[in-house]
């Protein structure tokens, strides 16, 4: 295995780009050891989380959503090897192209993808603009972007809950508005497209309003 480059590190995992794994570039995600847990319990929980993450990525792909394909799992070393996506995080893409006319269509497509995700009862659990990837367009096209991928399913789970789908959207909304307040109107287009496409979209958007109110009260009262 050639060349490891640390891309990010969070509370749960380190993420590396691998220059050559099975003949192609890849991402290697390594779950961190939790020293405060008993080693046997930590190993078991790590195995469960890896299993859930991989299964939910596969389930999302079966629903027609782009996710990195899994190349190999190593439960002993707590590692997942998966497809390397050559593109930009949505967060960085928006910074680079925020004034482009096609931005609304990009965000509406994200709304349609999230509708598919929630129609499959998959909750992402960490839906931010850093966990959505946008690939570069193919050559000789006027399109602003290529494909949209959802990544990092480490906190994902399966549940048919309007409330928790609304929380998924709320997490994305807060991440979006905090970094791209100038695109708040375009984000509303994303929500409207989600509402139009998702089977329970109307109920979920109504519940999102309730979640927003609770969030404001929490901020107001500390």
TrEMBL record:
- Compartment(s) of residence: Nucleus
Per the UniProt record, which residue ranges are transmembrane?
none
Q: Which positions fall inside the Protein kinase domain?
A: 1-222
Name the UniProt key words of this record, in alphabetical order: ATP-binding, Hydrolase, Kinase, Nucleotide-binding, Nucleus, Phosphoprotein, Serine/threonine-protein kinase, Transferase, tRNA processing
PROSITE patterns in alphabetical order: PROTEIN_KINASE_DOM (PS50011), PROTEIN_KINASE_TYR (PS00109)
GO CC terms:
cytosol; EKC/KEOPS complex; nucleus
Q: Which domain of life is it from?
A: Eukaryota
State the EC number(s): 2.7.11.1
GO molecular function (one): hydrolase activity
Q: Which InterPro entries match?
A: Bud32, Kinase-like_dom_sf, Prot_kinase_dom, Tyr_kinase_AS
Q: Which family does it belong to?
A: Belongs to the protein kinase superfamily. BUD32 family.
- Name recorded for this polypeptide: non-specific serine/threonine protein kinase
Task: Give the species this sequence originates from.
Answer: Tetrahymena thermophila (strain SB210)
Its lineage opens with:
Eukaryota, Sar, Alveolata, Ciliophora, Intramacronucleata
């Amino acid at each position: 295995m050639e060349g490891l480059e640390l891309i990010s590190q969070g509370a749960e995992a380190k993420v590396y780009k691998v220059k050559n794994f099975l003949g192609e570039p890849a991402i290697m995600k390594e779950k961190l050891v939790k020293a405060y847990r008993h080693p046997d319990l930590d190993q078991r929980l790590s195995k469960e989380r890896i299993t859930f993450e991989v299964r939910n990525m596969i389930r999302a792909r079966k629903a027609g959503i782009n996710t990195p394909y899994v190349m190999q799992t190593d439960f002993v070393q707590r590692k997942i090897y998966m497809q390397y996506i050559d593109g930009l995080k949505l967060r960085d893409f928006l910074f680079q192209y925020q004034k482009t006319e096609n931005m609304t269509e990009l965000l509406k497509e994200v709304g349609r993808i999230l509708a598919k995700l929630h129609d499959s009862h998959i909750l992402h659990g960490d839906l931010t603009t850093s966990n959505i990837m946008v690939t570069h367009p193919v050559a000789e096209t006027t399109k602003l972007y290529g494909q949209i991928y959802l990544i990092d399913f480490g906190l994902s789970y399966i549940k048919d809950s309007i409330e928790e789908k609304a929380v998924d959207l709320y997490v994305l909304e807060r991440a979006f508005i905090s970094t791209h307040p100038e695109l708040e109107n375009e984000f509303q287009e994303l929500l409207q497209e989600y509402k139009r496409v998702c089977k329970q979209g109307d109920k979920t958007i109504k519940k999102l309003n309730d979640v927003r109110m609770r969030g404001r009260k929490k901020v107001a009262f500390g």
